[in-house]
Amino acid sequence: MSLLKRAIFILLLTAALLAALAWATFQLPVFGGAPDARLLERIHASKQFHAGRFENTPPYVSQLTLSGELKSYLGDEVREPQFEVPVQRMTAAELARPVAPGLRAWWLGHASVLLEIDGVRIMTDPVLSKRVSPFQFVGPARLHPPPLALSELKNVDAVVISHDHFDHLDMDTIRALAAGGTHFYVGLGIGAHLAKWGVPAAQIHDMDWWDKAEVRGVTIHCAPARHYSGRKSMDNSTLWSSWMVKGPEHSAYFSGDTGYTAHFEQIRERLGSPQLALLKIGAYGAWENIHMTPESAVLASKDLGAQTMLPVHWATFNLAYHAWEEPIVRAVAAAKAQGVQIVTPRPGEKFEMGRPFESRAWYLKGA
């Protein structure tokens, strides 16, 4: 064999081995699973499913460019806190007691919020792992510890999942909750990931926009959002959603990841106004079509007619090209200008509807 032929053979063999390794990697459970025939039939019947994938209306067209991304990546913003984030530690005992009437919320970081609403305990996008990545040895790490250890996360009745990206759908957290009997309410297709992770079918509820389900007198509504999905690539194979939770006396809304569109007004018209709106404010920049700015989040709170806005999706992972505290500073300023009531709890700090709450600027050094 000539040197040229040998070099070509080695090159082809290397390429084949790398392709095989990539294929094997994507088969790991953390990347999720594929829907069975019954779920696939429901997916194909969805009004949001077109030409083999879920789509926004109008479709999202990425404006990202390599040069623009590189320029943003090389920015000089301080993207991680330069002091210890003041986390208020929660205890397992708090989850061991029965859920009292009323509406309470604990922001656990990023998009994870523990809600107690009219006797039912619900979590949004629970992520308590160290990293938001397929692998816990590499990838964006937490900028502060979770207020509650994963081993202490118990007695959660229900979870709502906005979409299947790694910073919103965490395999280890899901498995821990599933072992305790938690039920999961997810956009169409996401249930296949949970099934892959061993969650019993009876605990998985795939839902389309405007579907609803009931948990001990509390109704969970799946509602529109503007985003995209995919565990392995941007293939829009699963449905992204926001969520309205309505009890006999109280209500809360969770935006998930979304751009600012008319869907907030549509949700108000169809489902009414929530008392508490958990609205994402971070990771915008060139992604504004699918990630609201802080100012847009405040407008969304007004569109919803929410009594109180609690900002989420900031301060926990370095995922965007802006200063780490910029989203909350802008959100507070916009809320003041727009006359929107906003609260800024520390991670793990309880907010209770109807009780006084003192918002501190804990995110500003020296405040």
Automatic annotation (TrEMBL):
Q: Which Pfam families match?
A: Lactamase_B_2
InterPro entries registered for this protein in UniProt: Metallo-B-lactamas, RibonucZ/Hydroxyglut_hydro
In the record, which residues are listed under signal peptide?
Answer: none
What Gene3D superfamilies does this protein's entry cite?
Ribonuclease Z/Hydroxyacylglutathione hydrolase-like
Q: Name one GO cellular component term.
A: cytoplasm
* Boundaries of every Metallo-beta-lactamase domain copy: 121-314
Q: Which SUPFAM superfamilies match?
A: Metallo-hydrolase/oxidoreductase
Q: Which PANTHER family match?
A: N-ACYL-PHOSPHATIDYLETHANOLAMINE-HYDROLYZING PHOSPHOLIPASE D (PTHR15032:SF4)
Write the protein's name: MBL fold metallo-hydrolase
Origin organism is Caenimonas aquaedulcis
Query: From which lineage does this chain's organism come?
Result: Bacteria, Pseudomonadati, Pseudomonadota, Betaproteobacteria, Burkholderiales
